[in-house]
Amino acid sequence: IDPPQPFPSNLTAPSSFVVLSTPSLIAFLDILPLSHGHLLLCTRAHRPKLTDVTNPEARDLGGYIRLLSAALVRATGIADWNVVQNNGAAAAQVVPHMHYHLIPRPEIRASGRFRESFTMFGRGQREELDEDEAEHLAEELRQQIADILKEEREDMEGKPPKQKL
């Protein structure tokens, strides 16, 4: 997969909260989140549907969904989440650009909020992203991504090389 870039691309809007930027992908906080930590991961190149994504982009998307999921769990403390990707208007795709939603799913029963109900994709009601909270969360997510990558690098360095058959 492409390595993360240290700074967000200048192609994003100034009010976006980018957590991951590579030459082919970008991940950022959803401006109308279904839950705290709701992320979007998409290709930089315009790809209307998942079937329009190139093989290298598909490999990168898969690798970064795993990485972003791990960072999201660490940053939010929420151990359950949805990964959602819609293709076409009949499948509820609103923005005609392929993207994944990573949506934390807090446990409502453990919190005593029994009357609260969740839709398949989160709270069911979207609220505007709080910019102060988003800035803090985006920074925490970036730090968690960096920590996970460092841990994985250290794990790989500590293991003997795989033998070729």
From TrEMBL:
Annotated catalytic residues: 99 (tele-amp-histidine intermediate)
Highest taxon listed in the record's lineage: Eukaryota
Pfam families: HIT
Coiled coil (UniProt feature): 124-154
One Gene Ontology MF term: catalytic activity
Record's keyword annotation contains Coiled coil: yes
Name the record gives this protein: HIT domain-containing protein
